[in-house]
C-alpha cells in the first residue's frame, strides 16, 4: 500500500527530543504497515486523516468485510502499555482490542472500528462533559497485578526536571507548578489505572456503545491527575469567554464534585499539567498554544 503519513503526525514527531529516531520510524512505516496488515490478515482501505500526533491509524477490513482499525506507533509511544491497558479494560468504556496474539511487539494494534469523525467535541459543552465523566468512571479500576505502567509520581518527576529549566517568561508559573506537584506527591494516594491523556477528542462514537475512549497513555495514580486534562478542554473557548479565572475555578469545582474528586487536588494537577504543556509547546515553537495554556494556568 502506497501512502503518505499525515502531516500532523510528521510535524508532531519532529518536535520531540528523539526526532531522529522518529524520522527513521517514519521512513520504515510503509514496510511496517504492510507487514502488520499481512500478519493480521486484514486489508487497508485508507489512512485516517488528519489523524493523531503520535501514531498512524489505517482503516482496514477483514476478508468478510468486517471493519477494523490498525494503529501503528513508534517504540517511544510504548504500544505494549496501551495494549495492556486496553486488554485490562476489556472494552468497558474503551475501544476493544481485536487481536492480542501479537501483543503489540511490532508496534501495531488491531482495534474495533469506531467513528473517528465523531468525538465528544461534536456535542454541546455541558453534554460532552457529562459523557466524559461517565466514561472516566468506567476506566478507573485497579491495575492488573505486575502491571508495566509508570506511576503519576514517576511521570511527573521527569516533567518536573524539564520545568526547572523553563525560560524566564515561564519561571513564575513553573515555580508554582513545581511546588504544587511536591505537595501532591508527598503522601501515597490512590493507585488506579488511568487513561493518562483523557480529553473530549479521545472519546469517539461507537456501535456497541455510544462513546468509547481511545489512545490511552496509561499510568497508575489518582483520579485527580486524569481529570485535570479534561478541565482545560476547548481552551480557546474558555479563554475567549468573559468568565476568566472565575469560570476556570467553577469548572474545576463542577468536575471534581461530579466525580467525587478533591477540588484542591484537581486544581493543583490542572495547574501543573497546564504549565508543563505550555512550557513544552513554547519549546516546540507553538507560541499561540503556549500563551493560551499559560494564561489558563495563571487563572488557577
Automatic annotation (TrEMBL):
InterPro entries: Kinase-like_dom_sf, NH2Glyco/OHUrea_AB-resist_kin
Record bears the keyword Cell wall biogenesis/degradation: no
Keywords: Kinase, Transferase
Pfam families xrefs: APH_6_hur
One BP term from GO: secondary metabolic process
Superkingdom of origin: Bacteria
Alphabetized GO MF terms: kinase activity; phosphotransferase activity, alcohol group as acceptor
Protein name stated in the entry: Kinase
Organism listed in the record: Streptomyces roseus
Lineage: Bacteria, Bacillati, Actinomycetota, Actinomycetes, Kitasatosporales
Amino acid at each position: 500500500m502506497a501512502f503518505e503519513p499525515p502531516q500532523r503526525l510528521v510535524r508532531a514527531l519532529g518536535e520531540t527530543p528523539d526526532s531522529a529516531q522518529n524520522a527513521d520510524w517514519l521512513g520504515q512505516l510503509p514496510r511496517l504497515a504492510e507487514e502488520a496488515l499481512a500478519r493480521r490478515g486484514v486489508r487497508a482501505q485508507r489512512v485516517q486523516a488528519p489523524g493523531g500526533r503520535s501514531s498512524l491509524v489505517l482503516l482496514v477490513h477483514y476478508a468478510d468485510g468486517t471493519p477494523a482499525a490498525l494503529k501503528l506507533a513508534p517504540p517511544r509511544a510504548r504500544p505494549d502499555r496501551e495494549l495492556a491497558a486496553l486488554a485490562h479494560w476489556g472494552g468497558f468504556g474503551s475501544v476493544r482490542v481485536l487481536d492480542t496474539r501479537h501483543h503489540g511487539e511490532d508496534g501495531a494494534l488491531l482495534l474495533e472500528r469506531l467513528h473517528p469523525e465523531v468525538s465528544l467535541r461534536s456535542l454541546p459543552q455541558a453534554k460532552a462533559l457529562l459523557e466524559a465523566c461517565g466514561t472516566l468512571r468506567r476506566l478507573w479500576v485497579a491495575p492488573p497485578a505486575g502491571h508495566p505502567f509508570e506511576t503519576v509520581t514517576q511521570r511527573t518527576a521527569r516533567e518536573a526536571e524539564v520545568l526547572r529549566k523553563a525560560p524566564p517568561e515561564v519561571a513564575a508559573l513553573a515555580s508554582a507548578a513545581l511546588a504544587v506537584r511536591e505537595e501532591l506527591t508527598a503522601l501515597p494516594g490512590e493507585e488506579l489505572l488511568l487513561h493518562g491523556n483523557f480529553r473530549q477528542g479521545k472519546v469517539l462514537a461507537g456501535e456497541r456503545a455510544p462513546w468509547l475512549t481511545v489512545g490511552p497513555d496509561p499510568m497508575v495514580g489518582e483520579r485527580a491527575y486524569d481529570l485535570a486534562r479534561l478541565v482545560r478542554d476547548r481552551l480557546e473557548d474558555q479563554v475567549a469567554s468573559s468568565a476568566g479565572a472565575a469560570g476556570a475555578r467553577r469548572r474545576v469545582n463542577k468536575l471534581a464534585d461530579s466525580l467525587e474528586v478533591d477540588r484542591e487536588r484537581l486544581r493543583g494537577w490542572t495547574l501543573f499539567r497546564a504549565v508543563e504543556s505550555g512550557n513544552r509547546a513554547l519549546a516546540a515553537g507553538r507560541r499561540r498554544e503556549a500563551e493560551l495554556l499559560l494564561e489558563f494556568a495563571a487563572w488557577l
